[in-house]
Design brief:
The chain is of the alpha+beta class. The chain has 2 domains: 124 residues, no CATH class; 85 residues, OB fold (Dihydrolipoamide Acetyltransferase, E2P) (Beta Barrel), CATH 2.40.50. The chain is 31% helix and 31% strand. The chain has 3 helices and 10 strands. The protein has a 5-stranded antiparallel β-sheet with strand order 3-2-1-4-5. The protein has a 5-stranded antiparallel β-sheet with strand order 8-7-6-9-10. Helix 1 runs antiparallel to helix 2. About 4% of the residues have low confidence.
Length: 229
């Protein structure tokens, strides 16, 4: 379902954003900080700073920022922090807020949007579900594992819209079946969003799937009707 895909993408991006954020915090707290100077910028419409710095061992090096912007951030001569991995000083990162937090920030924003869309879509589906409506998965399970019996339709009931729950108008069928022991059993169908009267009449027979473990769990078989699945 699209809403599940949106939710999965959203939460995946949020998890990735958290990973990047934790790494950025680790760099800021545990790596060695030295002062660097912006000496140039990369060419192009978007530009990243080129920073000169000196390692604790006295070696001069340059590092190019990983985030390009337009307009460029900073100017030549500006002092910026550079963080060096204490286990390997050849691994360095610029310590500006843009460099440390851009990736987790943008991933967190996009992930949040996807997760929110998935959540709202899920709530929309739930709010659109009619009172007492079974999930498609539950109905499929009853079709696969339940006992199918034929019952006689005894009533078609229309239910008006409910102002308190915003539930739409719907219809239900009532049917009766005599079980093998001779007892009469009555069933009320899951809600139907369209009027079934043109397709089902009182006195018609209709299939019902009954849970073998709990006969109080059942679903009408609408698969052969225009409004059924």
């Amino acid at each position: 379902m699209p809403r599940l895909i949106f939710s999965a993408i959203g939460w995946g991006l949020l998890a990735l954003a958290l990973t990047f954020a934790l790494h950025a915090d680790e760099v800021r707290r545990e790596w060695t900080r030295v002062d660097g100077t912006i000496v140039n910028f990369t060419s192009g419409d978007s530009q990243a700073p080129i920073v000169d710095y000196e390692t604790p061992g006295g070696e001069r090096r340059t590092i190019t920022g990983s985030v390009s912007t337009s307009p460029r951030v900073g100017k030549i001569g500006d002092q910026v922090p550079v963080y060096l991995n204490p286990a390997d000083e050849s691994e360095a990162r610029l310590g500006t807020a843009l460099e440390l937090w851009f990736a987790p920030g943008i991933l967190g924003f996009i992930g949040g949007v996807f997760a929110l869309v998935g959540s709202l879509a899920g709530r929309s589906v739930e709010s659109a579900r009619l009172p007492g409506q079974m999930s498609e998965r539950r109905i499929r399970a009853l079709r696969e594992t339940g006992d199918r019996v034929m019952a006689r339709v005894v009533a078609i009931i229309g239910v008006g819209p409910a102002a308190t729950t915003r539930a739409a108008a719907h219809w239900r069928l009532r049917a009766e079946w005599r079980d093998p022991s001779g007892a009469d059993r009555a069933f009320t169908s899951q809600p139907i969003a369209v009027d079934p009267s043109p397709y089902v009449k009182v006195g018609d027979e209709i299939g019902i799937f009954i849970d073998r473990e709990n006969p109080n769990i059942y679903a009408f078989d609408f698969s052969m009707l225009p409004f059924g699945g």
